[in-house]
């Protein structure tokens, strides 16, 4: 800011000198047109000109003073974002492990059908993933709040970083859509037998009384309509999509919180003329 103030001061000074030189040249080349002009008129014109220049200088000075305050706030928030907010987001995505659900799905080589172990494990893992997904949502909310503070202070992510930020934010919607697809596939199978699954229940329940389904009944339903249909393959495919989204988000966060970058590699003024 100090450099800009010096520049503006010299600019005002040279404009005043230029104005006086302009008046002097007119008086030399057109003496007849100047003879009826009183000295007070010239002083009035010069005074108004100088006041106008000082007003312009004051506007720039006030703007730079305000920007110096908001810049310090923006840098403070960016430091918090890089070393705390992004760290929390990274941790939330890291513990989101849909591969744990895949572990309990039957496979044709080792365990081609559901049993007590993998039936309970499937729904417990699905419920656990939903809770961890809510943690991801909360972490991304904090990331959005931090970004909004930066924008309020007149700063934002650098262009390349902003693209990574957008990837992370959009991933939350895609993760929830995939989660709802998993529930839809499960309920397509269960609903034929008067059973429904919802994350709020944590385990499938009977529709008519909302009581927990008998484990033996649930195993029969899954082995009858889930394993023998294409639903199991669809379920596995969506789990893979969730894992891909998770990994993509982790990579994007890693770019945002690159330890080799400075804070100014992460954020920049929104208006390029403020640099």
Total count of domains: 1
Task: Write down the Rg.
Answer: 34 Å
Q: Into which percent range does the helicity of residues fall?
A: over 70%
* Secondary-structure element string: HHHHHEHEEHHHE
Total number of β-strand segments?
Answer: 4
Mean pLDDT comes to: 84
**What percentage of the residues does DSSP assign to strands (E)?**
under 5%
Biggest sheet descriptor: 2 strands, antiparallel
Helix count, per DSSP? Answer: 9
- State the end-to-end CA separation: 10 Å
Shape: rod-shaped
Low confidence ranges = none
SSE class: mainly alpha
Strand neighbour order, sheet with most strands: 1-4
Task: Describe, in plain words, how this protein is organized in 3D.
The longest helix has 56 residues, at 39-94. The chain has helices at 2-29, 31-34, 39-94, 99-102, 116-152, 159-190, 215-226, 231-256, 263-266; strands at residues 155-157, 195-196, 205-206, 267-269. Helix 1 (2-29) runs antiparallel to helix 3, helix 5 (116-152) packs antiparallel against helix 6 (159-190) and helix 6 (159-190) packs antiparallel against helix 8. The model has no long low-confidence stretch (mean pLDDT 84). It is rod-shaped, with a radius of gyration of 34 Å. The termini are close together. By secondary structure, the chain is mainly alpha-helical. The protein has a two-stranded antiparallel sheet. The protein has a two-stranded antiparallel ribbon with strand order 2-3. The chain has one domain. This is Phage abortive infection protein. It comes from Klebsiella pneumoniae.
């Amino acid at each position: 800011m100090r450099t800009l103030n010096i520049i503006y001061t010299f600019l005002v000074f040279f404009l005043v000198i230029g104005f006086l030189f302009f008046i002097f040249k007119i008086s030399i080349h057109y003496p007849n047109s100047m003879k009826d002009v009183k000295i007070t008129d010239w002083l009035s014109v010069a005074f108004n000109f100088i006041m106008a220049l000082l007003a312009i200088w004051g506007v720039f000075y006030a703007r730079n003073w305000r920007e110096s305050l908001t810049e310090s706030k923006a840098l403070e928030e960016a430091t918090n974002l890089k070393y705390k907010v992004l760290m929390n987001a990274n941790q939330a995505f890291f513990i989101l492990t849909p591969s744990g659900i895949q572990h309990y799905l039957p496979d044709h080589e080792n365990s081609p059908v559901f049993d007590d172990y993998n039936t309970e494990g499937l729904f417990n893992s699905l419920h656990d993933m939903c809770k961890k997904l809510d943690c991801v949502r909360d972490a991304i909310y904090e990331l959005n709040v931090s970004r909004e503070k930066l924008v309020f202070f007149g700063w934002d992510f650098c262009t390349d970083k902003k693209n990574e930020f957008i990837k992370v934010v959009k991933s939350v919607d895609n993760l929830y859509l995939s989660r709802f697809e998993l529930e839809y596939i499960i309920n397509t199978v269960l609903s034929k037998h008067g059973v429904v699954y919802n994350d709020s229940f944590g385990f499938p329940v009977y529709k008519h009384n909302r009581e927990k389904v008998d484990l033996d009944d649930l195993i029969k339903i899954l082995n009858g309509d889930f394993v023998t249909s294409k639903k199991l393959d669809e379920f596995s495919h969506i789990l893979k999509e969730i894992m891909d989204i998770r990994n993509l988000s982790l990579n994007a966060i890693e770019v945002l919180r690159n330890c080799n970058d400075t804070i100014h590699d992460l954020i920049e003024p929104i208006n390029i003329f403020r640099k």
